[in-house]
Design a protein that fits this description.
mainly beta; Immunoglobulin-like; 3 domains; five-stranded antiparallel β-sheet; flat
Length: 335
C-alpha cells in the first residue's frame, strides 16, 4: 500500500511573537489502490517549533486536540508527528474536511495555539482500474437486412461507484432505431440491447395472415416479446401489446427490525431502486422476503411510481437484526 499526499495546509499560530514559531501542519492523503466505491483516506498532523516566544521554551506538555494526550518536543526546529491515520473509505469525488488545533500553555499561563482546517476532494476513479467501482457493461447487436441478428458486441464498459448513474445513448439513424440506458448502480451488471433495423419490427418463423395476425402453424400468437434484457438487479420484458414486466432481488444487510408496532416489530423505511425503464402508468407490485435467517413479511408497499419501485417495511413478531433479499415483481404498461 502506498499513501499519496492529496493536500497539505499550515495552520496559523496565535499568542506567539511570530507566526513561524509554533504551527500545525495537516496532511490529507489516500491509499492509491481504490476500493469498490472510493479511496481509503488518511490524515497526518505535524507540529513544528521554529522559534521561542520571549521567556518560553517549548520542551513538553504540547496538547493535541485529536488525542487529548501530551507529547514532548525537543529543541527548536524539531516537530511532533502523528503519522498517517485512516479516516475510512470516502466516495469518489466527495469532499473531505479536517479541522484541528494544538496548543501549549506557557509558564505565565499564556496559551500558544495553532489551528488549521483543510478541505479537499477525493480523486475520481478511472475506467482502467478494475478496483475503482462496479463494472457496468452494455452490449448491443444489430438486426440484419434478412431479419436475423448479428452477434453481441461491447459498446460501453466502465466502472462506477455505488449510487452513481450509468447512462448511455445510441442515436437513431436512417437505418436503425436508437437506444438509451440509464440507471443507478447497485451491483455489477451487463445490459443486452437489440438494435432493430427500420422496417423489421420482429422476426417470426411462421406466417402473416391477411388480417395482420402472426401465426405459428394454424395458431395465432396472442402476444410476443419485442424487447428483453437485464439492467442492474432487474430482468425485464416488453410485449407487443404494451404490457411490461420487470423482476429482481434487492439485498438488505443487517437491517434492524426493532420499532414497536402494537404486538409486532417493524424496520425503518426501505427505499427500493429505480425501474430499468419508465412505465406509462403505475405498475402493480408483488413483493416477498427471502432469507436463510430471520423470517419476516412485507408490511406494505407505497410510493410506487412510473419510475420507482417505491418504499416498503418489513415486520416480524419479535425484534431482530436481519439480512436477506426483497424479491420484487412489477407488471404495467410501457406503451
Amino acid at each position: 500500500m502506498a499513501i499519496t499526499t492529496l493536500k497539505t495546509i499550515n495552520g496559523n499560530s496565535t499568542g506567539a511573537t511570530s507566526s513561524t514559531q509554533f504551527h500545525l501542519e495537516i496532511y490529507l492523503g489516500y491509499n492509491d489502490t481504490p476500493n469498490s466505491n472510493g479511496y481509503e483516506m488518511y490524515v497526518r498532523r505535524l507540529v513544528r517549533v521554529t522559534g521561542n516566544p520571549t521567556g518560553v521554551t517549548f520542551t513538553s506538555n504540547l496538547y493535541r486536540s485529536w488525542t487529548g494526550t501530551t507529547c514532548s518536543l525537543g529543541a527548536v526546529g524539531t516537530y511532533a508527528d502523528t503519522g498517517w491515520t485512516s479516516i475510512g473509505v470516502k466516495d469518489f469525488g466527495s469532499t473531505v474536511t479536517i479541522s484541528d488545533y494544538c496548543q501549549y500553555t506557557g509558564g505565565s499561563g499564556t496559551i500558544y495555539k495553532s489551528s488549521a482546517t483543510l478541505t479537499a476532494t477525493v480523486p475520481e476513479g478511472t475506467s482502467t482500474d478494475t478496483n475503482n467501482g462496479l463494472e457496468q457493461t452494455i452490449m448491443i447487436r444489430y438486426q440484419q437486412s434478412d431479419g436475423t441478428w448479428g452477434e453481441y458486441t461491447t459498446t460501453h464498459n466502465n466502472y462506477y461507484a455505488i449510487g452513481s448513474e450509468c447512462s448511455w445513448t445510441l442515436d437513431e439513424t436512417d437505418e436503425y432505431e436508437g437506444a438509451e440506458v440509464s440507471y443507478i448502480v447497485s451491483v455489477a451488471a451487463t445490459t443486452y440491447l437489440d438494435i432493430r433495423k427500420k422496417g423489421h419490427s420482429f422476426l417470426v418463423k411462421g406466417n402473416l395472415d391477411v388480417n395482420g395476425n402472426v401465426k405459428i402453424g394454424e395458431n395465432i400468437m396472442a402476444d410476443y416479446i419485442v424487447e428483453q434484457g437485464t439492467s442492474g438487479i432487474w430482468i425485464y420484458r416488453k410485449w407487443s401489446s404494451g404490457i411490461a414486466e420487470c423482476w429482481g432481488e434487492f439485498e438488505t444487510a443487517n437491517i434492524a427490525c426493532n420499532t414497536k408496532w402494537e404486538t409486532m416489530y417493524e424496520t425503518p423505511t426501505i427505499i427500493l431502486p429505480e425501474f430499468p425503464f419508465n412505465f406509462i402508468d403505475i405498475p402493480m407490485p408483488s413483493l416477498t422476503w427471502r432469507s436463510g435467517g430471520a423470517g419476516a413479511f412485507i408490511e406494505c408497499v407505497w410510493a410506487v411510481s412510473e419510475t420507482s419501485a417505491g418504499k416498503t417495511l418489513l415486520s416480524r413478531p419479535n425484534a431482530s437484526t436481519m439480512s436477506g433479499y426483497i424479491s420484487m415483481r412489477y407488471i404495467g404498461r410501457w406503451k
